[in-house]
Amino acid sequence: YDTELYETKPCDSNVCFEALHGALGDCSCNVDTIDYFNNVKIFPRIQSLVSKDYFRFYKVNLKKECPFWADDSRCAIKYCHIKTCTKESVPGYANGYENEHELEAPAVKYTKEAQSGCSNDPDLDLDLGYLNTTISAASQYEIAKWKAHDESLEKFCGNDDRDAEAEYVDLSLNPERYTGYKGPSAHRIWRSIYQENCFRPKLNPYESFPYVLSTDLSNMCLEKRVFYRAVSGMHTSINIHLCSKYLLSEKSVGFAAPPEGEWGPNIEEFQRRFDPSQTLGEGPNWLKNLYFVYLLEMRALAKAGPYLEKEEYYTGNPTEDEETRLAIRNMLGVIYTFPDHFNESSMFSGGSQAANLKEEFREHFWNISRIMDCVGCDKCKLWGKLQTQGLGTALKILFSATWDNPESDAEQSPLSLRHRVQRLQRTEIVALFNAFARLSNSIRELENFRILLNSNKQTNSRQNTFGGPRDAVDNKMNVKKEQCTSGGSKPRLGS
Ligand SMILES: Cc1cc2nc3c(=O)[nH]c(=O)nc-3n(C[C@H](O)[C@H](O)[C@H](O)COP(=O)(O)OP(=O)(O)OC[C@H]3O[C@@H](n4cnc5c(N)ncnc54)[C@H](O)[C@@H]3O)c2cc1C
């Protein structure tokens, strides 16, 4: 295909952002509305929320074997390493929140103890009302299988929660940032996600090309487009984080540099990844996909809001737990006011064909969550698993029938809050909010890059006019004078 089309355009420092306005596509929302809403209203709230103990500790199994191929990679730099926590250092662990699933299991509602409150009622004739609930062992075994089957239909991704090898990780000690993970191992992951586990246009004019071109998206139905755009948006977010927290200098240049190296935004890296002239015009579309997946996850939070508002957020510290509940209600209250939420009701509507497509959609995402066990860098794997689980939880909320009326269970439950039907595991809730926080942070980081690129452009033009010295900050930010020359740089697409 004609690469010249894209290469002739000279690289302007702000060209990544020129196309990042207006309609988002596949929804009625636009980029500018999300920008403002996120940066002003959501970003400060969600960042403060995920710093709370409940959201800081994520249980994950980073030792699971890759089910698809032998892991052949090693962390490129020492910053890939993960610091795990001892169980005792996790707030509330000693008080047994690990066992809360058992406490909250629906079966508890039917124990003698739970029902004993009724026995004093004079109108209640226990003999007449006797219900024989005996079920043979064989039937119980079968029913357990049905339950497992029904539950698996709801799941869009795996959950390590009960794995013996799962460990708690304090996310605040392991920030998502540049790790140096790249090359064949990283490419194999992305390629197998897009090539084997994303829907592709039926008539793909670039058979050998593993990724989907935005121009081909119109050949796909809405559901398949949504899937691709959600995954691509997550990919964008991961890559924005590595650009915004890039390792600028390994060792201290001056005495004031921190021992862990110096981290900050790398404009050149950002442009390499998103500038249209270096991505066959795809960069701005990938950026738009970030907004798209943000919209999906925000809609999931709004839909599950009534359920999430009633969650306990237990960590064993009553003051902290109450603060968390208040912060959740406050943030959800703001999310409810968003004027242009994604409308999932237009998806998967159309008989058995739609049901099959939904099942395919779920299976594809399930596979992507398993591919995360093949990531060859622990820190990337941690954040890859968390963000996939967060997105999988959002998809489950949006597309599982049982989520169409999330309030009803909680309202009908005659027992206390703890005994309502548990729809989400702790790790799913932690992943859902943290994944959304990552997307929110990426959108905020885009604003930083926009400002840096603008000031860079002004400095360049001033320098061209007056020949003045280059701003010292630019050097620190890894900005090179000739950022990209037209036609000279190889497009990255499909590398
Ligand atoms: C799950 C996971 C987590 C990772 N986490 C980190 C991390 O925390 N820190 C870190 O430094 N590195 C991380 N990486 C590596 C990082 O994402 C890149 O793979 C790596 O930096 C190499 O980049 P690249 O330029 O070769 O293109 P890649 O990002 O590897 O992309 C491969 C190809 O996909 C296409 N593409 C790129 N972006 C998009 C998009 N948004 N949508 C659709 N197609 C696209 C392009 O054609 C590109 O050539 C992670 C990788 C994976 C798979």
UniProtKB/TrEMBL annotation:
<feature type="compositionally biased region" description="Basic and acidic residues">
    <location>
        <begin position="471"/>
        <end position="483"/>
    </location>
</feature>
<keyword id="KW-0813">Transport</keyword>
<feature type="disulfide bond">
    <location>
        <begin position="118"/>
        <end position="157"/>
    </location>
</feature>
<dbReference type="InterPro" id="IPR037192">
    <property type="entry name" value="ERO1-like_sf"/>
</dbReference>
<keyword id="KW-0249">Electron transport</keyword>
<feature type="disulfide bond" description="Redox-active">
    <location>
        <begin position="75"/>
        <end position="80"/>
    </location>
</feature>
<dbReference type="GO" id="GO:0016491">
    <property type="term" value="F:oxidoreductase activity"/>
</dbReference>
<feature type="binding site">
    <location>
        <position position="232"/>
    </location>
    <ligand>
        <name>FAD</name>
    </ligand>
</feature>
<dbReference type="GO" id="GO:0005789">
    <property type="term" value="C:endoplasmic reticulum membrane"/>
</dbReference>
<keyword id="KW-0560">Oxidoreductase</keyword>
<keyword id="KW-0732">Signal</keyword>
<keyword id="KW-0676">Redox-active center</keyword>
<feature type="binding site">
    <location>
        <position position="235"/>
    </location>
    <ligand>
        <name>FAD</name>
    </ligand>
</feature>
<feature type="disulfide bond" description="Redox-active">
    <location>
        <begin position="377"/>
        <end position="380"/>
    </location>
</feature>
<feature type="binding site">
    <location>
        <position position="273"/>
    </location>
    <ligand>
        <name>FAD</name>
    </ligand>
</feature>
<keyword id="KW-1015">Disulfide bond</keyword>
<comment type="similarity">
    <text>Belongs to the EROs family.</text>
</comment>
<protein>
    <recommendedName>
        <fullName>Ero1-like protein</fullName>
    </recommendedName>
</protein>
<feature type="active site">
    <location>
        <position position="380"/>
    </location>
</feature>
<feature type="region of interest" description="Disordered">
    <location>
        <begin position="459"/>
        <end position="495"/>
    </location>
</feature>
<keyword id="KW-0285">Flavoprotein</keyword>
<keyword id="KW-0472">Membrane</keyword>
<feature type="active site" description="Nucleophile">
    <location>
        <position position="377"/>
    </location>
</feature>
<keyword id="KW-0274">FAD</keyword>
<keyword id="KW-0256">Endoplasmic reticulum</keyword>
<keyword id="KW-0325">Glycoprotein</keyword>
<dbReference type="InterPro" id="IPR007266">
    <property type="entry name" value="Ero1"/>
</dbReference>
<feature type="binding site">
    <location>
        <position position="179"/>
    </location>
    <ligand>
        <name>FAD</name>
    </ligand>
</feature>
<comment type="subunit">
    <text>May function both as a monomer and a homodimer.</text>
</comment>
<feature type="binding site">
    <location>
        <position position="177"/>
    </location>
    <ligand>
        <name>FAD</name>
    </ligand>
</feature>
<dbReference type="Pfam" id="PF04137">
    <property type="entry name" value="ERO1"/>
</dbReference>
<feature type="binding site">
    <location>
        <position position="190"/>
    </location>
    <ligand>
        <name>FAD</name>
    </ligand>
</feature>
